[in-house]
Amino acid sequence: MGQVQVGTAGWTDKTLIASGWYPPEASTPEQRLRFYARQFPLVEVDSAYYALPADLREAAAKAGKDRVYLKDVDPEVTGQAWDRFLAALEPLRAAGKLGAILLQFPPWFPISRANKDYIVACAERVAPRRVCVEFRNRTWMTPDNQRETLDFLSRHNLPYVCVDEPQGYPSSIPPVLAATSDLAVIRMHGHSDKWDSNNISEKFGYRYSEEEIGEWAAKIGGLAGDAARTHVIFNNCYRDYAQVNAQQLAEKLSA
Hints:
By secondary structure, the protein is an alpha/beta fold. Helices cover 42% and strands 13% of the residues. Helix 6 links the parallel strand 3 and strand 4. The radius of gyration is 19 Å and the shape is globular. 29% of the residues are buried. The model has no long low-confidence stretch (mean pLDDT 93).
């Protein structure tokens, strides 16, 4: 079995801090990160997902729309966003601390030749840094398209991000475990019954049971046999749910 590293999506959530998971002496962001790093070998940094720098937001707003898509933005602005993003990651890459860049494609990004080309172009743009790919549009992983999608990722040595999330929603992706590269990635989103909520705490407010963690430990052990490294990220980020579940999984995997 390859190396398995377990962590959570972030360490600064207000509900996490309020939960008491951090000791009282960890009262600053730096102290909390140091404490977190003593518990887990892996963390997902997602701040870049939520907002562009202020000047780039202003430039993108010139499209004159409330919601701006890539096609609406001047290529120069897009290039600046890429350059600044990669520059911010450079200290991590230089220190050997950068695992993979998560490319999470939205519900309006269906399977198509053009979108496959775009994924490859993104991977080439950030090389030699590596990416992993998570889909939020179900067409990529329907029974008819699943093999095509996984073969496409394998041909380009792109890790598929396996997901555990609520089913039965238009954007639901099935919990398919597959290694399409030497790195396997799993993101655990939980099973909230409010998956379509705009409230992040409601959407991700799910704590896995001991039984569920045990079942996933067995599945992850099997997946890790097909990859040199496996990264497992708990994204059920409400209070200390992700941290507790991540610690439970790590203990079961090491038993």
